């Protein structure tokens, strides 16, 4: 049995493929890449191609349809897992190409699980990569978190009720999969006075990359599935913060324990 390798390729710019990912692609492992429909273009494969790599003749596409039909999904997963096990049984490693990071909302973890159910002896190696939101923050020139700030990463499909609630709980919200909810989210951000501290990023790192700071103008637009929003709430009321392990704090505590006598609360 070969190894199943999840090769994170970053969100679009081949310069963000890690050295380990790059090496795996060139290791002689058989490439497998995800598509939504048979013979459709693969966003992940395109990243490798933009990086200057030729697609090996024996690269294999695995179909993962975008559907909520549980039966169709289960069938597709079973087919993809069975095909992967068949390939691994040839004794060669399989490098599964993943857009973004392979551990973040990625098909790879499901695939690895399904493969292990069929063949528990298969060794799985996950190569970490740059996630869409890390690249998006860099590209939009905003911080995901500074100092003691908190960040939540959520699929927007939980709805604006939950987003509204989380705005008060976190300094930054990363809203993934925003496509079907853009207008509703814009209404919420307008109501909360957060349009100016939010931004929208689409297909980051790809030639079609788009960074929108004036997000109100997205109203009514059909955006690409590969898009997200970063929402920052500078007015968030914070709780008490314990900084017991900091040296500065320790110096005010009793010499015998080295601990601060009381928690230091956040400024402001
Ligand atoms: C199935 S998840 C894949 C996440 C990916 N594994 C990662 O590490 O970011 C798909 C969602 O991730 C976000 N996403 C993925 N790639 C993106 C990109 N290049 N630009 C903007 N958002 C992206 C979008 O919110 C999209 O709906």
UniProtKB/TrEMBL annotation:
Q: Where is the composition biased (Polar residues)?
A: 258-268
Pathway(s) it belongs to = Cofactor biosynthesis; adenosylcobalamin biosynthesis
Q: Which UniProt keywords apply?
A: Cobalamin biosynthesis, Methyltransferase, S-adenosyl-L-methionine, Transferase
Residue stretches making up the Tetrapyrrole methylase domain? 3-213
Q: Does the keyword Isomerase apply?
A: no
Q: Look up keyword ATP-binding and say if it applies.
A: no
Enzyme Commission number(s) from the entry = 2.1.1.130
Q: Which GO terms describe its molecular function?
A: precorrin-2 C20-methyltransferase activity
Per the record, the coiled-coil ranges are none
- GO biological process terms held by the UniProt record: cobalamin biosynthetic process; methylation
EC top class, as a word: transferase
Q: Which family does it belong to?
A: Belongs to the precorrin methyltransferase family.
What name is this protein filed under? Precorrin-2 C(20)-methyltransferase
What organism, scientifically named, is this protein from?
Denitromonas halophila
**Lineage of the organism:** Bacteria, Pseudomonadati, Pseudomonadota, Betaproteobacteria, Rhodocyclales
Query: Could you tell me the gene encoding this protein?
Result: cobI
């Amino acid at each position: 049995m070969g190894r199943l390798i999840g090769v994170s390729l970053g969100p679009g710019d081949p310069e963000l493929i890690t050295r380990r990912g790059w090496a795996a692609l060139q290791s002689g492992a058989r490439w497998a890449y995800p598509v939504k429909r048979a013979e459709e273009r693969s966003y992940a494969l395109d990243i490798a191609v933009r990086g200057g790599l030729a697609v090996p003749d024996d690269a294999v596409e695995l179909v993962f349809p975008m559907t909520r039909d549980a039966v169709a999904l289960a069938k597709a997963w079973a087919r993809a897992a069975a095909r992967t096990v068949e390939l691994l049984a040839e004794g060669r490693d399989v490098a599964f190409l993943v857009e973004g990071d392979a551990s973040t909302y990625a098909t790879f973890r499901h695939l690895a699980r399904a493969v292990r159910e069929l063949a528990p002896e298969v060794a799985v190696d996950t190569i970490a990569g740059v996630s869409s939101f890390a690249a998006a923050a860099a590209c939009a020139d905003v911080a995901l978190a500074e100092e003691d700030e908190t960040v939540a990463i959520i699929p927007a499909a939980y709805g604006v009720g939950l987003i509204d609630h989380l705005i008060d709980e976190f300094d930054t919200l990363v809203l993934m999969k925003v496509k079907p909810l853009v207008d509703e989210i814009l209404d919420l951000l307008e109501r909360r006075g957060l349009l100016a501290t939010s931004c929208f990023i689409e297909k980051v790192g790809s030639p079609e990359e788009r960074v929108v700071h004036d997000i109100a103008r997205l109203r009514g637009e059909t955006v690409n599935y590969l898009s997200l929003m970063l929402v920052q709430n500078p007015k968030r009321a914070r709780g008490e913060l314990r900084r017991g392990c900091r040296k500065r704090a320790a110096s005010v505590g009793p010499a015998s324990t080295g601990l601060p006598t009381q928690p230091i609360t956040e400024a402001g």
